[in-house]
Specification:
The structure is a homodimer. The first copy, chain A, is α/β, with parallel strands linked by helices. Chain A folds into two domains: about 140 residues, Aspartate Aminotransferase, domain 1 (Alpha-Beta Complex); about 250 residues, 3-Layer(aba) Sandwich (Aspartate Aminotransferase, domain 2). Chain A has an eight-stranded mixed β-sheet, sandwiched between helices. A three-stranded antiparallel β-sheet of chain A has the order 10-11-13, covered by helices on one side. The mean pLDDT of chain A is about 95. At the A-B interface, α4, α5, α9 and α10 of A face α4, α5, α9 and α10 of B.
């Protein structure tokens, strides 16, 4: 296009944009929250424990009372089946897997990981696959841990770079979402999982926070398959590197689910030592509710298929709109994930902030540009995380169309300024 | 008594003891857990949130979903009324007040209390009113904080000594249970509360963990009254010293209740800053369940009176047995608490461990002797914590009688050895 043509295009796009502005929209595509329709599908869970229910867990523990620090046996059994980990290597927590990760990092800061407390080691660092989950970065930033960007390739983090970076003994680990990654929806390939298990970090207190948040969250029948990281680590004798975390937050209720951690026997022991001082036990009635409803892996699968039926049309609207509006323009790139909660959109370099700002001014809130990178700084200012799960389908149509328009405006503005 | 008389007494006591041993008892008076009868009185709470309930909090928040970091407004309002603190100065947590305290100390270790992180300050110390709650001591021991014994007097900790001890800037605070203290059931007098509020510690990052675990836990109509510590602190400008903690653990269910924290606006701000990184929010459905059932202060009072009716006979059996068996013998001293969960028994110096061990060998588990002191070391080996709430009345009768017998045996053994 000539400069004149670009200017004309921009004028026309801006007219279209003004129409959106005049609609006084108030839509939110910012966070990976389930919508009400989806939450309604889990309501029976709440009837599983009532005033007339049996209050005892399978081992006879009265779930109303104190005790059973590491969770009721039937909930451990459920996640043992889901994650392919021995029940003895599982601890059941409260409602937040983020809290489990924060507490583990905090434990490393004050008590180390079989080492000197991290806080007493001077400057320490974490590798950060990017784009990634903003809440992981926030934990690291809060504890003053320096973050090093490791780009995500097609099948997981750039392992050549990772293998280099971990030669520095001040690098203590990394967070990752190995299945349906946040925000790209990528699943680590078998090769990447094997290379992670085979890592030989210089730090002997290196820890990988394996945030398997979307372990059961397939959108379609042909789901991604993730290798069992502990099986691979066993071959390399590196099980102590992995702290796996999962939860029912997006299986049942984000605000009232149950989180779990899986780890080597050695790590389980140090975590329990801390927990024994920290609490007398987590909410066992909620664990009971969940296992009575979900039952086992087959039960979870049926339930997740019901949720997927609600989520598929939402992902389809966004992906169709992207294709219709931006396909072939060269203004953006994206992937079609097989599960998880996000679609990651890469726009022209330097255009993400502008596009998100334009959306905001027209009443559509997106995750802030940059949030998918450490310190909120996307070096190329191009990544936008789309969370299509919360808005109802009709609102989503409007929000997705507006986003495409804003990406075009930002893109054309950029081309004109060059 | 002559040595011969003592020997005869001991033989007779031992014959009595052997009869208990032959009964193969298996009783537990070790922890302050409610019994089943008491828990059954709270069952309706579980029906307050079911599949047909309204899921929204009073501010419109869907309690099933993410969000509302510091708790639903109606739960804050409930504890605002109970503790006499502005709702803005309250944060609602998960099921464990112990966890709230642990996390706060952990926060001070890694981020300080408006100061250098405690972990980077070298050796730091806490004052410890003794006898006290073993779980408080465990937190301090876990974080390597040195503990200094401050004896409990009739109306609270020895404030003359406390005022001396806090002149050392490495002394960073203390834990206390100001109402119906654990284990003695003492309530701090107005004078003690005022002297605490007026403390001028050398450390500018001094914190008092005001563990108001039994704020509503009266056994009788003429209950103890505790001054509102924040009101007193306001007069001295010392509100930042106090972190108050409370919970419904012994109002509803120990394993599935709701904990709260009350603090100055400045402290609330730093705690929320940490929480924002640590979690997306605690279980709001459980907060909803609890407020719908308990409603307000009047509702809590009615409920607690029902619980007290179950607890009173249990306290009476133990106190009556102590009076019948040990009254006037000079072998033991105890107080009659007006609330809380414990009876504290002081036996002859050097006899607590032996008495508890004798009970154990006859099948009655008590809190380990020494547990009510830092590092598990009772300098006079004389304090025994009795937890009368868990066993049914009939079992309690036997356990209390056995305990008195063991106290006598240990006492006579001691007299004989002198």
């Amino acid at each position: 296009m000539t400069k004149n043509e670009l200017n004309e295009t921009l004028s026309s796009l801006r007219r279209e944009y003004e129409e959106y502005v005049s609609k006084n929209l108030k839509l939110d595509m910012s966070r990976g929250k389930p919508g009400a329709t989806q939450l309604n599908l889990s309501m029976s869970i709440l009837n599983e424990v009532n005033a007339d229910s049996e209050m005892k867990a399978s081992d006879g523990t009265d779930c109303r009372n104190y005790g059973l620090l590491d969770g009721i046996p039937e909930f451990k059994a459920l996640y043992s089946e889901l994650l392919g980990v021995d029940p003895q290597n599982i601890i059941v927590f409260g409602n937040s897997s983020l809290n489990v990760m924060f507490d583990y990092i905090s434990q490393c800061m004050t008590h180390g990981a079989g080492s000197t407390p991290w806080l007493l080691q001077g400057k320490i660092k974490f590798a950060c696959p990017v784009p990634g989950y903003d809440r992981h970065f926030s934990i690291l930033e809060y504890f003053g841990i320096e973050m090093i960007n490791i780009p995500m390739l097609e099948d997981g983090p750039d392992m050549d770079l990772m293998e280099e970076v971990v030669k520095d003994s001040s690098v203590k680990g990394f967070f990752c979402v190995p299945k349906y990654s946040n925000p790209e929806g990528k699943t680590f390939s078998d090769d990447v999982v094997r290379r992670i298990a085979a890592l030989k970090p210089a730090a002997n207190d290196f820890r990988i926070l394996w945030d398997n948040a979307y372990s059961e969250h397939d959108l379609y029948d042909n789901s991604d398959e993730l290798l069992n990281v502990f099986e691979e680590c066993k071959k390399c004798g590196s099980e102590d590197m992995i702290i796996e975390i999962a939860s029912t937050s997006k299986i049942s209720f984000p605000g009232a689910g149950v989180a779990v951690l899986a780890a080597s026997s050695k790590n389980i022991e140090t975590i329990k030592k801390r927990m024994f001082v920290q609490t007398i036990g987590y909410d066992k009635l909620n664990q009971l509710r969940h296992t009575r409803y979900l039952k086992n892996k087959a039960g979870v699968k049926v339930h997740m298929q019901e949720l997927a039926a609600v989520l598929r049309p939402k992902f389809k609207i966004v992906l169709d709109t992207l294709e219709e509006q931006l396909g072939g323009t060269g203004l953006a790139e994206w992937l079609k994930p097989n599960g998880g909660y996000f679609i990651s959109l890469d726009v022209l370099d330097g255009c993400a902030k502008r596009a998100v700002e334009l959306c905001k001014q027209a009443g559509v809130i997106l995750t802030p540009a940059g949030a998918t990178f450490p310190y909120g700084k996307d070096p190329r200012d191009r990544n936008i995380r789309i969370a299509p799960t919360f808005p109802p389908v009709e609102e989503l149509k409007i929000a997705a169309a507006l986003l495409c328009l804003c990406v075009k405006i930002a893109g054309v503005e950029k081309l004109l300024s060059e």
